[in-house]
Each structure stands twice: as structure tokens, then as C-alpha cells.
Request: fold
Amino acid sequence: MSEHDEELGTPTINKIESLRLVITGVMVTLALSITLCVCLYYDSSCNTTSVRTQVYKQVTIPEYFAKYKDVIMEADRKVSDNVWQMRPCMHVCIQDLHGFFAMPLRQIVTPKQIRVPGDPRGYRKGVHQGIDFYGINSGDPVYASAPGVVIRIDKRYLPLEKAKRNELLKLCETKWNGTPGSVVTPRVDEPYGNVLDKLSGRQVLVYHGKNTQNEPIISLYAHLSRVNDKVNVNDIVTSDSIIGYVGNSGTSGEISGNGLLENHLHIELFVGGMYWTPKKESEIGQRQSVERYASLQATVLKELSGLIPSQSKQ
Ligand SMILES: [Zn+2]
Reply:
């Protein structure tokens, strides 16, 4: 091949190269556009700000879970290795929790057996942060509501003494204007600590990983008669794992020694420092009409029965 041919050939190769570059550029732009559209779609379908402000209520103690920080760090590794695989939906649509948490009980529960999170609690002048299930028996098994890692399991629980409990309740009413650790009142320094925690009895906490906004997702199970001794902190549990048994620990029934009184399961579902409630902001800490309350009870049951579709499926 002569020098001349080579000179002739160069522009031809340049043209082909340019064409290739243009085609590659168009394809890259197309791929980026598609990726952006998908991201925007998930963002708009999952990051439902309006739903979020309606169904979550900020707890006044952002450090509520601070004491579990180290165990959460350890649990994070297990969550990313295992739990994401169990519930891959969590990556994109956990913000509103629809379809994430399941019933912690196996028996059939009717809406009337449910007390809704966000209700007023007169005896301690505070707000109820959890879902209560009544009409069940002491010793009934309690299951984790979603796959996760156990971050607290009270194996050495000691009941509050009657005098101490009464003192705390009196202070809630007269000095603190509500229960410390509840949504309406500030945290109280030691020696009182988190009073709400003391009134919750024997508990288990399960960490479910973080949502896309890096907020921890945690479920709490309270008033248990006993915990599953085979389960330990840092164990992976699924929604088929028994973590404890229904009881009345932390309630007036435990104090009075009446084994039957106040038996119920109390669970709290948290994202970041917010607990889940189907109530509107204006309804938190307020009583509702019978009709409205019945609809809230039904919503809780539907949510935990997986009957409310995930936002991303709509
Ligand atoms: Zn409760």
C-alpha cells in the first residue's frame, strides 16, 4: 500500500470512527435517559411524602434507639447479606412500609381487637405509640413482623415495683405533663430514664435494615410473658420466627398479680425516629368518633395482613 492510499484511507477510517462515536453517544444518552426515567418513576411512586407525613409521627426522643447503635452496626452486615434477599422490595419501596410488616400473631384477629397507634393514654398522660391486640391469651406465640436481626431481647427482665410505678405515673401527671418518651413530652434525665420503656415490660426489638433514606427500620414487641430463650441478640429472624409470648408485663395487671388482667400484645413499628400510625396528624393523641375509629382499626389490620398494596405496584 502506497503512502497516497494510506492518506486516502485515513479520512474514511475517521468517518467510520466518527459515526461509531455518534452512535455510541446516542446509545449512552438513551441508556442514561432510561435510567433517569426509571429512577424518577420509583422516586415518585415510592417516596410518597404525603403518605409519609400522614402515617408517621416523630418521637420526641431522637436518641430513643441510640443505645442500640453498636448492635445495629453489627446487624447491618447481616441485614445486607441476608435480609435484603428475603425482602428485596425493601430497597425501593420501604418508605411507606406498605406490604412490609406482617401480622405478629397467627390467630384470626378482628378489627375490634385492635387499639390504634396515636391514641391518648390517660393513666400516664401520654400518647400510645403502638398497635395493641386484645382478646388473645397469655402465652400465645408472637412472631417477628418482618425479616430482621434481633437487637434487644429481655431475658433478665425485672418488674417495676408497685411503689416505683405509681411514683412514675404520678410524676407523668403532675410534673412532666405526660409520659417521658412519649410524643408529647420531653425526655427525662436519669434516674427516671425512659419511663415509656419501663412501662412496656418485657420486650424484643428487631432491626430490619435501613430504607433508601438511610433511616433504620425497627419493630418493637412489648408486655411479653416470656421471650424465646433460643433467640439471642444478633440472631436473624424471619416472619416465621417466634420471638416471644403474649403477656401483661409492665402493665397494672402484672403489678396487681392478676395473671389474666391486661394480657395483650403491643407492637411499635418505627422508621427513623417515627412510629407508624394510620391517624392523621390532627388525630394524634385525640379520641375519634366510633365510625372513624372502626375505619382506623380496619386500616391497621389491612396493613398488617398485606391487603394494602405497595405504592410501587399501583
Ligand atoms: Zn399498647
Q: What stands out?
A: The chain has two domains: 3-57, 81-305.
